[in-house]
Amino acid sequence: MVIHSSTIQLLRFHFSFFLLPVYLFAIGELPEANVRNALIIFVILHLLVYPASNAYNSYMDRDEESIGGILKPMQPTRQLFYVSVGMDIVALIMALSISTLFTTCLLAYILASRAYSYRGIRLKKYPVIGYLTVIIFQGAGVFYMTYHGSSINNTTAVPIAAMVASSLLIGGFYPLTQIYQHRADLKDGVRTLSYTLGYRGTFIFTAIIYISAMTVLAQYFYSEQQEKKLFILATLMLPILVYFFR
Questions:
Q1: How far apart are the first and last CA of the chain?
Q2: Residue 159 resides in a domain
Q3: How many domains does the chain have?
Q4: The domain containing residue 38 runs over which residues?
Q5: What is the CATH number of the domain that holds 216?
Q6: Does a structural domain hold residue 13?
Q7: Is the residue at 2 inside a domain?
Q8: C-beta pairs of 103-106 under 8 Å, 24+ apart in sequence
Q9: How many other C-beta atoms can be found within 10 angstroms of the C-beta atom of residue 175?
Q10: ∠ CA 162-33-214 to the nearest 5 degrees?
């Protein structure tokens, strides 16, 4: 089977790595990591599930204007849909080697992602619900899955403060990915949080959320006597902030 150039473009592998800090944050908080599982989870999330979600969203949206990481998106073909489903299936099969709980969480993530984009449900057209869906699953959900799955004994004792901070970190830049799509989204019947807030409001809102995230992180790291990790995580987030605020 020949893979269409549009399929490769719309998987947006490069854009998936903007979510890498949450994964690294979870790994960094483990007293001891199961390296094998951590690597499998990296592949599952960043090379399969995130790109598949990007692809499915593009298949539903059929964007003609700039989208996250692509100035001129190509039009999707039916192949993109099949590839996205296939990647999700492979991810779920691989997840079984981690744990049943990890697989269940991953399935919930995939279903939430589909509900966000699928035109029959289309959570993304609701400003608040769409925003909360993204930050809960891509933030707290991913931290929980990664921490649990990468731990030595598949622990379920995951630090709540770190999960909250992860959601706030995602919430602090996610609306910025929507800021250049107001016209296209409105034409498609989608009122994103960014559109509701406006350009200026979006930047103010994301700044407040990001400051809140760093405040929670500071309190968390200082309580754990891990001040150096705050600097490391802030450094990892810097390229993302520069990209969206430039």
A1: 40
A2: yes
A3: 1
A4: 18-245
A5: 1.10.600
A6: no
A7: no
A8: 105/141, 105/144, 105/145, 105/148, 106/44, 106/49, 106/145
A9: 25
A10: 20
In the chain, alpha helices (H): 5-11, 13-16, 20-28, 35-42, 50-61, 78-95, 100-117, 127-135, 142-150, 160-171, 182-187, 193-223, 227-245
User: Is residue 86 included in any domain, yes or no?
Assistant: yes
The position carrying tokens 């289309």 is 122
For 22, 86, 109, 177, 232, the CA distances from 4, given in Å and listed in that order, are 31, 15, 27, 25, 39
Per residue of the chain (246 residues), what is the pLDDT tens digit?
A: 688 899 999 999 988 888 898 999 999 999 999 999 999 999 999 999 999 999 999 999 887 776 766 778 889 999 999 999 999 999 999 999 999 999 999 999 999 999 999 999 999 999 999 999 999 999 999 999 999 999 999 999 999 999 999 999 999 989 988 887 777 777 778 888 998 999 899 999 998 998 999 899 889 888 888 777 777 777 766 666 655 555
Identity of the residue numbered 232: I
Instruction: Tell me phi and psi for residue 151, to 5 degrees.
Output: -75, 160
The Cβ-side half-sphere exposure at 133, using a 13 Å CA radius, reads 22
